[in-house]
Write a structure and sequence with these properties.
The complex is a heterodimer of chains A (294) and B (94).
Chain A lengths: L7 E7 L4 H16 L7 E5 L18 E3 L4 H7 L5 E7 L2 E2 L2 E2 L7 H9 L6 E6 L14 E2 L6 E2 L2 E6 L7 E6 L14 E5 H11 L12 H32 L9 H19 L8 E3 L1 H4 L5
Parallel strand pairs in A: 1-2, 1-4, 2-3, 4-7, 7-10
Antiparallel strand pairs in A: 5-6, 8-9, 10-13, 11-12
Helix pairs in contact in A: 1-4, 4-5, 5-6
Chain B lengths: L3 E4 L9 H9 L3 E6 L8 E4 L5 E4 L5 E2 L8 E8 L8 E2 L6
Parallel strand pairs in B: 1-6
Antiparallel strand pairs in B: 2-3, 2-6, 3-4, 4-5
The chains are: A alpha/beta (294), B mainly beta (94).
Chain lengths: 294, 94
């Protein structure tokens, strides 16, 4: 069952319009375009939490429609001509769920997906922190009388368990075929999502069964993410040492400059926190993932 | 492709290395903006999904009304910022 057919809809979702998340989405779109996937079958759901239009300096491929995340259910409900749905989630997350306006909790997302009876297959790839809050949910619906499995059946991949996922500066600028893509090729990428979409563009048969399935992409993205994480941990330790040697406060007559310094210091500590935990990947409904191909 | 302006980090001389680092890492985003009511403001430094600092041309932060009306002109990329590190994607880090 190919997820790149005319009957598939791909959705990219982010509760924040920060540059790195727009770059994640842009790279994902280019990966689909490379595979010849019709961009009419792609929809973007991106919130603008500050209210300013940061997206206006960001040009996605023409013809793509952008909605608020709050409109996800309504927009998916309208699109009854699709039988397969893939949702790629970037942006922030917390223990409450996907950080959007409003927050998307696991039960709510599942409720939306299960209400879309016209769909047969659904794949959700969660790149945000604390994606594990969506694990162990009941991915199938059952007929109350016959107990038969009802449409749609759902497979979920998580880039992180009950902890942080990370973004790392990546560059595809010199790597064929990505160097031909019309998007920013050097950005601070959600590591797992970038490698997952890289696998969609250039599929790999990890288990050797002659097919390139979601399960293969889950594995290859995890392997490549772990390889890069081990490289950057050394840099993280170096920053920790530097941070401990720096003054706790900055002397300045500007209140705003002091505020900004303090913000940067808090964010540096948050970055270092991220090295203290492992970013464990997970998959829900793995048997089903074996049947979904690219 | 985003509309992008490339500048050298030395142009933002008022910003400390502690601030330039997350900017170079891509954790923070910098935009050239237009603020009719406060013409000295040239950049918006976005440190999270919901937080912005307004900067002069040399990077000095300016205290302004929280609900300042502004227009985003370009995304700004800092040159010589090739660093490798990671940035958490958690909402709690805001």
């Amino acid at each position: 069952m190919s997820l790149l057919g005319d009957d598939s809809l791909w959705v990219f979702l982010s509760g924040s319009d920060e540059s790195r998340f727009l770059d994640d989405i842009s790279f994902g779109i280019e990966c689909l375009f490379y595979r010849g996937f019709p961009l009419d079958n792609v929809a973007l759901f991106i919130d603008q939490p500050i209210g300013a239009n940061f997206r206006q300096v960001y040009t996605f491929r023409p013809g793509l429609n952008i909605y608020r995340t709050a409109d996800l259910h309504e927009e998916l409900f309208k699109r009854t001509n699709y039988t397969k749905l893939v949702i790629i989630v970037t942006g922030h997350g917390s223990s409450l769920g996907i950080d959007a306006s409003p927050v998307i909790k696991p039960y709510h997302l599942l409720h939306v997906l299960k209400s879309l009876g016209h769909l047969q297959q659904v794949l959700v790839v969660l790149g945000q922190c604390f994606a594990g809050t969506f694990n162990f949910v009941e991915a199938r619906s059952f007929d109350p009388v016959t107990k038969a499995v009802l449409n749609p059946e759902i497979c979920i991949l998580g880039a992180a368990d009950l902890t942080t996922s990370v973004s790392v500066p990546l560059s595809y600028a010199s790597i064929f075929p990505f160097n031909r893509f019309s998007c920013t090729l050097k950005w601070t990428a959600n590591l797992y999502l970038a490698h997952f979409m890289e696998g969609v563009a250039t599929p790999k048969d990890i288990d050797g069964d002659g097919r390139c399935t979601v399960l293969d992409m889950y594995k290859s993205a995890g392997i490549e993410t772990n390889q890069l994480l081990s490289q950057v941990r050394a840099t993280a330790m170096q920053e920790l040492v530097e941070l401990l040697q720096q003054p706790m406060v900055v002397a300045s007559s500007s209140t705003e400059l002091v505020k900004l310094f303090q913000q940067a210091r808090e964010d540096a500590i948050a970055r270092i926190d991220a090295i203290l935990v492992n970013q464990n990947f997970w998959i829900l409904n793995a048997n089903y993932a074996r049947t979904l191909e690219f | 492709m985003p509309a992008t302006l490339l500048i050298d980090r030395q142009q933002l001389s008022k910003l400390s290395k502690e601030v330039l680092r997350p900017l170079g890492l891509g954790q923070y985003s910098l935009y050239k903006i237009e603020v009719p009511s406060v013409p000295e403001v040239v950049y918006a430094l976005r440190t999270s999904a919901t937080k912005i600092f307004f900067l002069k041309v040399d990077g000095e932060p300016v205290s302004v009304n929280e609900h300042l009306d502004f227009r985003v002109l370009e995304r700004v990329v800092i040159d010589n910022s090739a660093e490798q590190f990671f940035v958490p994607n958690s909402a709690v880090s805001r």
